[in-house]
Amino acid sequence: MIHFKKIIMKTKNIFLTASLVALSFTMNAQIGIGTTNPQGSLDVVSTNSGVVVPRVSSTAAVTTPVNGMIIYDVSFNCFKGYQNGAWTDCGFVPFNSILVQIGNEGDDPNTVPSVVTAAQLASVPGVTGVVTANEAAYQAYIDANPELFSAPATVTEVNDMITVVNAFVASNGSALVSSYSCSTASAGTMTESTVVSGVTQTITATVTSVGTYSISTTSNGVTFAASGTFSGTGAQNIVLTATGTPIAAGTHAFVLNTTPGCSFDRTTAAAVPTITSTTGKVWMDRNLGATRVAISVTDHLAYGDLYQWGRKADGHEKISWTNGTSGTPVNGTTSTNADTPANNLFITEPVSPHDWRVSSDNNLWTGQAAVNNPCPAGFRLPTSQEMDAEVTEYGINNNNTAFNSPFKFTPSGYRQYDTGALSTMGRDGAYWTSSVSGNSPILQYIYPTSSGSTIGYKANGFSVRCIRD
Q1: Which of 153, 159, 255, 422 has the fewest CB atoms within 10 Å, i.e. the most exposed one?
Q2: Domain that holds residue 189
Q3: How far apart, in Å, are the Cα atoms of 367 and each of 370, 373, 445?
């Protein structure tokens, strides 16, 4: 009768130990190899090599075995020892291998094989799968169920002993996964030297056996991780949440600690240059979209972008500044009822209330998490109170005092709500805030001889200076 006899994993180390203990010598002196102070009858010392025992074609080749003998059986690719008048089973099994002996030597190899189920194998640490009794049957099972194996498995059978190499070993939990897709979805942005917040990566696992999972990957100072239980098979999404602080700007690969493997790339933006006010607030050191901090009152390279209130950085804000002037901007003519317009054109709206949006929304720029916040990660638009506090703190009351402050505010002009034309560049400056009065946003203006706050039309294009949350 065919029956399940043994499963032996690579953790058995008894035969090498036994060989060193049981070797006998005809001399009584201690022998040291690589040492002048042997411990025991034989002491072999090395930091970069090992002991090689006789390698024989099979145990049958050893005509006069004696108790305590150890060999390396090349027919099984494993160590065997002779004790109590018989050869032992294999002592070491290759990584990701299962060694199974079913029945007795001499059994009919054509007999229908018995099956070792996944449930039976669960008692062996780190191993899951199904084992059948003869080589052909098991190889057929492997070929029909590739999801159970981390690499193409191979089977050898000698004297009813079946060795299966590359059997799937479930990693990071008890679930079995045949494949991962790491590019399902991503959310959030990362900035150099800034603690990540709201950053996720969604991956998809093709699950063949339900169970637990614990997935993580670390790169550039950031760890994406998730753990839980797959309650169903097939395609299952997992949301990996990021923690940590990115070390450097650039694109970095994140390799999952899973079998099978999977990886995804995420980009970290360069750190945002900032200034710290005496009020204790941290601000960007230049206008949003500017290529540098102003070096003069009318430095056109410090003017930056001109945003319609509540719109994200989608391209409508871009101005090609040349010597303080610009070419004719491209405008759109149709207001929208969507938070994100259909294109990146500047939307002109000559009809009151001069809003690029058909129905007004006062929350599009409220806080860092606002749906259309145009500022870098960790930053947002200031409130009118925060902007007023800085103007008061530094005595900003005209273009010169604005430039002489740490903010280096510039007279960038604005784009008109009705035509989209540029106006007052080099003379007037105005900065949006996130605050509103009724349905009208509040802006901070800085003129040649005055400064203050007032309300504006949302379809106007003004400068933005971001504050750290």
Answers
A1: 255
A2: 176-269
A3: 5, 7, 21
Give the Cα separation of 75 and 88 in Å (integer).
Answer: 14
Query: What is the three-state SS of 307-355?
Result: EECCCCCCCCCCCCEECCEECCCCEECCCECCCCCCCCCEECCCCCCCC
pLDDT digit string, tens, across residues 11-61: 334 344 444 444 433 445 688 888 888 888 888 898 888 889 999 988 889
Do 335 and 346 meet the contact criterion of CB atoms below 8 Å apart?
Answer: no
Q: Are residues 72 and 139 in the same domain?
A: yes
C-alpha dist (Å) from residue 29 to 3, 23, 35, 37, 359? 49, 14, 14, 12, 99
Please state, rounded to an integer, the average pLDDT across all residues of the chain. 80
Determine, yes or no, domain membership for 189. yes
- Look at strands 325-326 and 321-322 and give their pairing: antiparallel
Domain boundary residue among 220, 237, 269?
A: 269
Pair (235, 319) in one structural domain:
no
Q: What letter does residue 60 receive in the DSSP assignment?
A: G
Give dist(CA 401, CA 394) in Å, integer: 8
